[in-house]
């Protein structure tokens, strides 16, 4: 059964000549096929990578039109080439095997490995000794200037961000691919699943890594660690992964969990975006003609049980460049905070104790300072109450006489690594507690306050919207079920009122 083609997703498209016959007898045929790709696929798909061999081809694409239009575009491409080929060779009948093969790509590591495989295909088939010498792959296109238009122009920045940069892209391609199975199954029709054993993800091997490379690699690994643990805690739902790209530069990897045993909705997202700083943000930072790079991990988890608190965390890094590409500013930011619906003081103490322990390993004043900033930042001024019971919030963490950027990296990653310890024990203690519909209604009313903060006050949401960020990823923090009840007031002396009293005045939990 052929895999469904879906808009917004990545696919490996491949096929061969019928009975493995030659479909590209010479370079002129290959050049003609590439011209047809540009003619028929432009505006229907984005080309990520390609390779043409004498009897088969590989395309890695992102579908940017609906299924019907995309499939018709591929059909037009193959029919146009077959018609021209048959006329050239004075033959009739089918040229390609029936139905082009397609495999949906849902994993970023697999996508990177597949790009390597496609580019090294001529060497693997012993057509050339060194794959760089082969003319009809997309490999060389990644080394051309941005002013040179190629089939992969639209996807170039995103692909290079997967490998961190052009230098690392080149380095990874020099890796040994021994043991890498034929992904397309073109030699063995029984091969249905790729075998990636023995192929290491070599991204990040460049020495010494820049700070942005180092932190970008860290958030990739942290996302894997956090999502794996949360899936275990939930016991039912799994994270759905969505790889996306930003037209102006960069992209990200969104992972969303929904309708689980524990988590009603949640997201653990990473992104790395770059390009010209939008005018609105240039005015905000007081700069002109600046470029930027920003990467980070952001997560929000909304549990089903109102006895389990919502949690938010974010760890990010930012660089700004002058017109010559030199770094003119750089900083870290981030934090983590807890938003309960029913107050268990031992949970608040546990969460803040973990935060304080992480801070104390670096500077004794950090916890007090960043706890206070968290209380001030996550505050719904229009409601005169905190969003939750706080945690840590730090921003614009720049090099000083006492803290280098390496010191800040160590601190931010310490906090990031402490997240699961701060939150998971609370979830496991509360997830099976009984609750009533009244308590569920209260949870949804309080979720409304959470939405209000994110849409009215949150700087991260503002930055994402003003830099043409991906809307689905930016707004994944919003809960699925929310209530706004006119002038709702909790019953005097109730557990609900106890929470509101605490939110009106920050508490020193440790």
Automatic annotation (TrEMBL):
<keyword id="KW-0350">Heme biosynthesis</keyword>
<dbReference type="InterPro" id="IPR036515">
    <property type="entry name" value="Transposase_17_sf"/>
</dbReference>
<comment type="similarity">
    <text>Belongs to the aerobic coproporphyrinogen-III oxidase family.</text>
</comment>
<comment type="pathway">
    <text>Porphyrin-containing compound metabolism; protoporphyrin-IX biosynthesis; protoporphyrinogen-IX from coproporphyrinogen-III (O2 route): step 1/1.</text>
</comment>
<dbReference type="GO" id="GO:0004109">
    <property type="term" value="F:coproporphyrinogen oxidase activity"/>
</dbReference>
<dbReference type="Pfam" id="PF01218">
    <property type="entry name" value="Coprogen_oxidas"/>
</dbReference>
<keyword id="KW-0560">Oxidoreductase</keyword>
<dbReference type="InterPro" id="IPR002686">
    <property type="entry name" value="Transposase_17"/>
</dbReference>
<dbReference type="InterPro" id="IPR001260">
    <property type="entry name" value="Coprogen_oxidase_aer"/>
</dbReference>
<comment type="subunit">
    <text>Homodimer.</text>
</comment>
<keyword id="KW-0627">Porphyrin biosynthesis</keyword>
<feature type="domain" description="Transposase IS200-like">
    <location>
        <begin position="6"/>
        <end position="121"/>
    </location>
</feature>
<dbReference type="InterPro" id="IPR036406">
    <property type="entry name" value="Coprogen_oxidase_aer_sf"/>
</dbReference>
<protein>
    <recommendedName>
        <fullName>coproporphyrinogen oxidase</fullName>
        <ecNumber>1.3.3.3</ecNumber>
    </recommendedName>
</protein>
């Amino acid at each position: 059964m052929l895999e469904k083609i879906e808009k917004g997703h990545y696919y490996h498209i491949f096929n061969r000549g019928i009975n493995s016959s030659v479909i590209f007898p010479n370079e002129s045929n290959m050049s003609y096929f590439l011209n047809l790709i540009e003619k028929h696929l432009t505006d229907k798909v984005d080309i990520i990578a390609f390779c043409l061999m004498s009897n088969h081809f590989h395309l890695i694409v992102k579908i940017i039109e609906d299924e019907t239009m995309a499939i018709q575009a591929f059909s037009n491409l193959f029919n146009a080439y077959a018609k021209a080929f048959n006329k050239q060779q004075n033959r009739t009948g089918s040229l390609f095997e029936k139905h082009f093969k397609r495999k949906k790509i849902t994993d970023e590591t697999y996508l990177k490995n597949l790009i390597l495989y496609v580019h090294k295909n001529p060497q693997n088939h012993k057509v050339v000794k060194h794959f760089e010498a082969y003319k009809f792959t997309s490999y060389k296109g990644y080394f051309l200037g941005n002013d040179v238009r190629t089939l992969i122009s639209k996807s170039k920045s995103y692909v290079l961000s997967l490998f961190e940069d052009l230098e690392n892209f080149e380095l990874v391609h020099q890796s040994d691919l021994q043991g890498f199975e034929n992904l397309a199954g073109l030699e063995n029709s029984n091969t249905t699943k790729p075998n990636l054993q023995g192929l290491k993800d070599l991204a990040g091997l460049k020495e010494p890594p820049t700070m942005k490379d180092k932190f970008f690699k860290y958030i990739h690994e942290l996302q894997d660690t956090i999502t794996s643990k949360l899936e275990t805690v939930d016991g039912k739902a799994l994270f759905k992964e969505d790889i996306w790209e930003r037209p102006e530069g960069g992209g990200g990897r969104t992972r969303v969990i929904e309708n689980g045993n524990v988590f009603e909705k949640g997201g653990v997202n990473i992104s790395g975006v770059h390009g010209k700083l939008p005018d609105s943000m240039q005015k905000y930072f007081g700069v002109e003609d600046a470029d930027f790079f920003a990467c980070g991990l952001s997560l929000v988890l909304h549990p089903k049980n109102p006895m389990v608190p919502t949690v938010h965390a974010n760890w990010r890094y930012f660089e700004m460049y002058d017109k010559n590409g030199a770094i003119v500013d750089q900083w870290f930011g981030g934090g983590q905070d807890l938003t309960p619906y029913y107050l268990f003081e031992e949970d608040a103490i546990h969460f803040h104790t973990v935060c304080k322990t992480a801070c104390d390993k670096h500077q004794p004043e950090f916890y007090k300072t960043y706890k206070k900033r968290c209380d001030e930042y996550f505050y719904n001024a229009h409601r005169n109450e905190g969003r939750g019971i706080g945690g840590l919030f730090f921003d614009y963490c720049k090099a000083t006489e006492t803290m280098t950027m390496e010191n800040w990296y160590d601190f931010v990653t310490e906090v990031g690594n402490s997240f699961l310890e701060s939150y998971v024990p609370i979830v496991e203690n509360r997830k099976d507690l009984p609750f009533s519909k009244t308590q569920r209604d209260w949870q949804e009313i309080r979720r409304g306050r959470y939405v209000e903060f994110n849409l009215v006050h949150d700087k991260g949401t503002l930055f994402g919207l003003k830099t043409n960020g991906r809307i689905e990823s930016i707004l994944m923090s919003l809960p699925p079920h929310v209530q706004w009840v006119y002038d709702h007031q909790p019953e005097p002396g109730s557990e609900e009122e106890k929470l509101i009293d605490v939110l009106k005045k920050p508490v020193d939990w440790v």
